[in-house]
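Hi support team,

I've been running sequence recovery on a batch of backbones for a student project. Most finish fine, but this one hangs at about 90% for roughly twenty minutes before it completes. I'm not sure whether the input is malformed or the queue is just slow. I've pasted the structure tokens below so you can try to reproduce it. Let me know if you need the job ID as well.

Thanks,
M.K.
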């Protein structure tokens, strides 16, 4: 199977996307056929600094990318059979060359690791692989009667898009139950819609296109069973739920489930529990993306070389990195990039793309794990003031 898909031969990590003008960082390599020889070379050459590393097999293919706060300690851990993860042993068995790149700090290494995984797609990496962890958007749209549907990207026919969320059975089930709860159609586009307030020359009885209207799961816009205003009200209600403005459906389902259980109607309680679990799953996933996408600040990080860098984070995305202003050139550069990044509202960028969402969630997870780092956050307005202040020349 490995020979069916050609892989790109490894030639180097290349420039950093956030800082392309700086060129490609220096790449360090050690090569040996046996793990024992690789271990000796790592002990001899690898520093105790943050960075990213890669493992290349006998065919010259990059098979794994990782990051480390301490490169030497992390790489040497691969050579300890008793304490290493079984997956690490399988990777090392195929490795003929180890490469590493020193990063300014651990946060920079984390961002660089994700960038390299998305670019090279090593076979032993899972997180950050777009083809291994598919995501979809929850979309609302399609005239003349809107519905909730899933799409790899929000199409032009969608009036709103939310997410992305993990693709799969749970997402499909949640969207189905969402349409049922708000009584929106889920029929094909070919189905003709006729609203109750739509003028007709001849008033003929209409038959619904499916049984959902008969069982109470659809307002019946195809059979003149509702007006345009009634249907629009349901569409606005589902938008409020997806935006996180109204979680009353979850509370109502929970009350009905509790009441059914108290009345010993266990089958109904189980059905309501399944609906509640499905909609709660979707609400929680959308909440995580929504909260992560609202972060806009400047993150100050001092590296191992004692140089402070500013990471400009807007709408949850790491948009740029600049040296902290300490002289006139760095002050001008910081002011310029701050204007470019924060010159427009974060909402203008729309929901994160499938490639961006891993970075957005990565930033959120970083500050959740390292709460002490929040003291290094600057409001963009404060950062602009600091960058605008002339650098004071030392008195002679």
């Amino acid at each position: 199977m490995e020979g069916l898909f050609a892989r790109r031969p490894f030639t180097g990590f290349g420039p950093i996307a956030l800082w392309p003008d700086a060129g490609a960082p220096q790449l360090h390599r050690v090569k040996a056929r046996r793990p024992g020889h690789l271990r000796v070379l790592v002990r001899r050459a690898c520093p105790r600094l943050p960075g990213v590393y890669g493992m290349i097999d006998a065919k010259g293919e990059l098979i794994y990318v990782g990051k480390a706060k301490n490169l030497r300690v992390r790489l040497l851990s691969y050579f300890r059979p008793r304490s290493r993860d079984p997956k690490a042993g399988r990777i090392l068995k195929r490795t003929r060359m180890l490469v590493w790149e020193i990063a300014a700090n651990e946060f920079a290494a984390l961002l660089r690791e994700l960038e390299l995984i998305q670019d090279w797609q090593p076979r032993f990496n899972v997180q950050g692989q777009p083809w291994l962890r598919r995501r979809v958007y929850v979309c609302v749209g399609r005239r003349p009667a809107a519905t909730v549907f899933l799409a790899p990207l929000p199409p032009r026919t969608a009036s709103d898009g939310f997410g992305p969320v993990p693709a799969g059975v749970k997402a499909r089930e949640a969207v189905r139950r969402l349409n049922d709860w708000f009584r929106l159609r889920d029929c094909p586009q070919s189905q003709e819609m006729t609203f109750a307030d739509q003028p007709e020359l001849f008033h003929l009885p209409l038959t619904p296109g499916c049984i959902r209207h008969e069982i109470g799961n659809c307002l019946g816009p195809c059979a003149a069973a509702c007006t345009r205003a009634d249907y629009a009200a349901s569409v606005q209600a589902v938008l409020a739920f997806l935006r996180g403005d109204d979680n009353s459906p979850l509370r109502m389902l929970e009350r009905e489930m509790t009441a059914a259980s108290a009345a010993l109607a266990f089958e109904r309680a189980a059905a309501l529990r399944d609906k509640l679990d499905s909609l709660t799953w979707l609400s929680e996933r959308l909440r995580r993306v929504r909260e992560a996408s609202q972060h806009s600040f400047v993150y100050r990080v001092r590296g191992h070389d004692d140089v402070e860098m500013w990471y400009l984070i807007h709408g949850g995305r790491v948009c740029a990195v600049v040296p902290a202003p300490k002289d006139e050139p760095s002050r001008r550069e910081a002011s310029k990039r701050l204007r470019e990044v924060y010159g427009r509202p974060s909402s203008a960028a729309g929901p994160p793309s499938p490639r961006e969402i891993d970075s957005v969630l990565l930033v959120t997870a970083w500050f959740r794990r390292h709460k002490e780092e929040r003291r290094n956050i600057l409001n963009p307005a404060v950062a602009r003031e600091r960058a605008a202040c002339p650098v004071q020349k030392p008195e002679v």
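--
Follow-up from support: It reproduced on our side and the slowdown came from queue contention, not your input. Residues 266-292 form the longest helix (27 residues). No action needed from you.
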